[in-house]
């Protein structure tokens, strides 16, 4: 709900982004987070990277190159989970 919604951002150097995001996610393991990226390729790449890093929380990806049914499945899975991270393009911002 808007009353419990929390928005965070961190300013860092480009070469630090993955490690800073990893640290942020590790410190928010019991929450839901949405991380917005500017392109489908970024979402796909970082989804693969973070799945390999195994941050201790479920990682999901939502972007415009997915079929509508797959986007709905990902969204519903995110809603069902108690804690998860959704890597998304602005398609999620328009539809959530």
UniProtKB/TrEMBL annotation:
Entry-linked SUPFAM superfamilies: P-loop containing nucleoside triphosphate hydrolases
Transmembrane regions: none
Domain Helicase C-terminal: 17-96
GO molecular function, one term: hydrolase activity
Class of enzymatic activity (EC top level): hydrolase
Record field: catalytic activity: ATP + H2O = ADP + phosphate + H(+)
Signal peptide as annotated in the record: none
Keyword Cell membrane (UniProt): no
EC number(s) given by UniProt: 3.6.4.13
Keyword RNA-binding assigned: yes
Note on domains (UniProt): The Q motif is unique to and characteristic of the DEAD box family of RNA helicases and controls ATP binding and hydrolysis.
PANTHER family: RNA HELICASE (PTHR24031)
Similarity remark: Belongs to the DEAD box helicase family.
Function comment: RNA helicase.
Protein name per Swiss-Prot or TrEMBL: ATP-dependent RNA helicase
Source organism (scientific name): Dipodomys ordii (Ord's kangaroo rat)
């Amino acid at each position: 709900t808007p009353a419990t919604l929390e928005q965070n951002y961190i300013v860092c150097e480009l070469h630090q982004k993955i490690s800073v995001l990893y640290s942020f996610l590790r410190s928010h393991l019991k929450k839901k987070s949405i991380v917005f990226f500017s392109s489908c390729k970024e979402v796909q790449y970082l989804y693969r990277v973070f799945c390999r890093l195994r941050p201790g929380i479920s990682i999901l990806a939502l972007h415009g190159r997915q079929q509508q049914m797959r986007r709905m499945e990902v969204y519903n899975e995110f809603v069902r989970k108690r804690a998860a991270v959704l890597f998304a393009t602005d398609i999620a911002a328009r539809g959530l």
